[in-house]
Amino acid sequence: MSDSLLNLAGAVTIVVAGLAVLVALALVMVRALRSRDADRDERAAQLAEFARVQADTTARIEAMRDLLASRQGDLARVVNERLDSVTHNLNQSMHTTRQQTADSLQKLSERLVVIDGAQKNITELATQVTSLQSVLTNKQQRGAFGQGRMEIIVQDGLPKGCYQFQFTLSNKSRPDCAIFLPDQRPLLIDAKFPLEAVTALHDARTDEERKLACARVRQDINRHVSDIAQKYLIRGETQDLALMFVPSESVYLELHEGFDDLVQKAMRAQVVIVSPALLMLAISVIAQIQKDARMREAADQIHAEVGHLMDDLKRMHERVLKLQQHFGQANEDVRQILISAEKVEKRATRIADVDFGDDGAGADNIIAAPIARRLEAGG
């Protein structure tokens, strides 16, 4: 575009120079007219020269005008081309920017949807946590919560008939669960636990509050262990130990880390404190014990069934031997048939050839290969 402007400037310069020449010629003409003393021939010559110069100047001006029009057309074409190129690039850039903006808005919308879902989940989780806190605060609901977890663990690990919930003992006590072992003495499980004292211990801010909370934990656990030992341990009727189920791993760890003496005292009282993980392990061991007991009870039946199986195998062996003898006899019969067929074939051949010489005494021991092959092939 700068080259076109330079060309246009050159053309303008040429036009200006032509106009200057024309002005000079006009001045010459004026002077010639004023000069009355000049010769007419000279004036005629000057006029002719002036006309020639004027015609030449007119031709140059026409040429300059054509050149200027051509340059102007080239300049307009170049400017239009540049404007079209700039417009195209601008449109393409705007389209790309608009597409990128749309993609960014789409991704932002998707992320907002994910954030909304996460916010809903957080709200639901907060609601569940609040509901769980209210459950754990109420003693009756907390007992139902612990019993529900215990029942799920027992039902998943033991077959029906090996346990009973709310089993009634001879002293009218009703433990939360009774698991029947091979000696038919139930192993009893209590699903309640003293959460208020542990919660107070967690919420303690001063040494005095912590001291009072620890004393309350010891008091509640000792009382609970004593109740289990007195109500659920009956000599000759129940097992020698009972389980106190704590449906919270954190509470169980808190008891073992901060009150190990209470745990040991409970074990000496034949009460074992178990968490959900330990209860599942105990249920697995009990299930294996019950399975072994059922296997021992069925040992005589298994021995009798094994004896019957051995008798069946012996009879099958005898029948296989008899079948083998039948196959051997059938093979011998086939061999004799082949010998007779060979003899018949030889006699038929002699009759056809009218040959009644030696009758082939050794033919009994020869089996014709073609006949044998045909019989073996099923022909």
Overview of this protein structure:
- It is a single chain.
- The chain is mainly alpha-helical and 379 residues long.
- It has 3 domains: 2-106; 145-297, Trna Endonuclease, Chain: A, domain 1; 305-376.
- The chain is 76% helix and 5% strand.
- It has 10 helices and 5 strands; from the N terminus they run αααβββααβααβααα.
- The protein has helices spanning 2-34, 40-137, 139-157, 195-203, 207-232, 249-258, 260-268, 276-297, 299-353, 369-376; strands at residues 163-165, 177-180, 186-190, 242-245, 271-274.
- Strands 1-2-3-4-5 form a 5-stranded mixed β-sheet.
- Helix 3 (139-157) packs parallel to helix 8 (276-297).
- The protein is flat and about 170 Å long.
- It starts with a helix and ends with a helix.
- The relative contact order is 0.05.
Annotation keywords:
3 domains, 379 residues, mainly alpha, flat, Trna Endonuclease, Chain: A, domain 1, 10 helices, five-stranded mixed beta sheet
Which structural category do the helix and sheet elements fall into? mainly alpha
- Classify the beta-strand content into a percent band: 5-15%
Overall average pLDDT = 76
The profile of the biggest β sheet is:
5 strands, mixed
CATH architecture descriptor text of the largest domain:
3-Layer(aba) Sandwich
